[in-house]
Amino acid sequence: MAASKPVDPQSGSGLPRWQLALMVGAPILLGAGAVYLWNRSRRKEALSKGNCERKTPEGRASPVPGHPDGKQPEEMSPLDMAQAAKNKGNKYFKACRYDSAIQCYTDAINLCPPDQKSDLSTFYQNRAAAYEQQQKWKQVVEDCTQAVELNPRYIKALFRRAKAYERLDNKKQCLEDVTAVCILEGFQNQQSMHLADKVLKQLGKEKAKEKYKNREPLMPSPQFIKSYFSSFTDDIISQPLLKGEKADEDKDKEGEAAVVKERSGYLKAKQFMQEENYDKIITECTKEIDSHGKYTAEALLLRATFYLLIGNASAAKPDLDQVISMEDANVKLRANALIKRGSMYMQQQQPVLSTQDFNLAAEIDPHNADVYHHRGQLRILLDQVEEAVSDFDKCIQLRPDSALAQAQKCFALYRQAYNGNNLSQVQSAMTGFEDVIKRFPKCAEGYALYAQALTDQQQFGKADEMYDKCIELEPDNATTYVHKGLLQLQWKQDLDKGLELISKAIEIDNKCDFAYETMGTIEVQRGNLDKAIEMFNKAINLAKSEMEMSHLYSLCDAAYAQTEVAKKYGLKPPTL
Fold first, then answer.
1. Which of 300, 386, 421, 544 has an alpha carbon within 20 to 30 A of 562's alpha carbon?
2. Torsions phi, psi of 83, nearest 5?
3. H helical segments located in 37-136
């Protein structure tokens, strides 16, 4: 569909990409640049199997004074008395008598010798647990801070403080603490990873909302624009105006057509489009619209399309709304406007509105192959694979020569089989890819999607060959170089070759946000956090939607949190 990236993109492993940016050993074929990747997060399932919430105090019970194994009170050391107070506090805690527990833990803190740092940190942490039950978040932070100062790698205290910071809406400090916890636990505890993911998403959304509304519009690269329009076959505005072109609305009763001679703003915009002089298109379309010219509907749609391309969805929507409401306009224009508005809604994470627009497009123009092609991609993102395959079949029925729909149908079937662990269907889908590239040898997308499936199957050598075919067919497609670079890392652990290919992608298209994002992720894994943050910031400035920008801020914030954790606690995950 017209959207350039999937919703909430994940890696094939189902892990959030901020986590992949910190971990080593997990697959790093992230696929952020492909429209067609599925959204297969298993986070809810993982959470149901995760560790239970950490609520209880800790510390083994010391022998109780007066018991056969215990010491008499006059023989007890200050530490023994502190332990006895702590044990008493634990009993009150379990009985939900939190004020009494707090008093006992306070006694333990006061009795404990200052040089017994491990025990003292436990007493502070236990008192913080009691304050947590009373929802006294500031006191929780204070006591956990004392515990962490005494024991900088105290996981319980760090995590409890992270949760308290979250309650106090201090997301930055919460993120730093939970990042430290994730590293200390080796990313094995779903509870802490869930909190990190949650806070990163919240921070990303907040920052993206502010940044996006104040961003300068940025025209994408010519390659991106051409690739965007190539995904449509029934789009009137993307078809070049030829000399002597005839307009349907000028046909007389005998079916003859008058030659379009006037040079309206819309026709000038089409000429600029043919010349790849994209910066002038919106201005010329506006002239046509303001003069109420004969191509007003076309100009509105073309202007809206370029508003979407530069990331100005708020300006695009009124134009799309107007075209859709023009019942006397060419039905192809209205259907195309619905497809683009539906794609815009999907980027804004409004799947219900998106689905409504695609369904309406199918209703008003049932023989438009673009409707089914783009709705099929929407349904893949919504995990409605059977419905997606049905849409691709309808598109193929209407346009048997649609190589793109054939390839995407194979990819949908492959994903369904792969996620269902159905080996026979996986093999059938792989055979389908072979058939597609044989029948359509000049369809670069067919090779690219097949390469992703081959990579899943760890057939790295053949996947590399497929990416080479993509590059041969589309040497200016930066995204292919990024995927090929990632393949070198996963296949041969060849960091130099991988970075060389991703750098080549940036050389080809210095507006390829996927290349900068991937470079940043690799730099995190290498431990070059400052460089990673620089790359993520470049990608943020190139993001084409608020949703993409939010995701990139999450990656950047994850890297920044790691720099702070390294400074404070000397904690770093393993690096490449």
1. 544
2. -65, -40
3. 43-48, 78-94, 98-111, 117-133
Distance CA(284)–CA(288), nearest Å, equals: 7
> How far lies 413's CA from each of 78, 376, 386, 410, 433, in Å?
69, 12, 8, 5, 10
**440 alpha-carbon distance from chain centroid:** 31
Residue 153 vs residues 113, 157, 172, 181, 570: alpha-carbon distances, Å: 21, 9, 19, 8, 10
CA distance linking residue 413 with residue 83, whole number of Å: 62
Structure-token match 């490449």, residue found: 576
pLDDT tens column, 400-409: 999 999 999 9
C-alpha 484/C-alpha 479 separation (Å) is 9
pLDDT at position 49 is: 37
Query: Which tokens hold the place of 539?
Result: 């990608």
Phi, psi (rounded to 5 degrees) for 256: -75, 160
From the number of C-beta atoms within 10 Å of its C-beta (0-12, 13-18, 19+), residue 61 rates as exposed
Q: Is the pLDDT of residue 311 over 80?
A: yes
C-alpha torsion angle, residues 295, 298, 304, 310 (rounded to 10): -90
According to DSSP, residue 168 is labeled T
Q: Which residues contact 85 (CB under 8 A, 6 or more apart)?
A: 104, 105, 107, 108, 111
**DSSP helix/strand/coil, 224:** helix
Average pLDDT over all residues of the chain:
86
Q: How many other CB atoms sit within 10 Å of the CB of residue 27?
A: 16
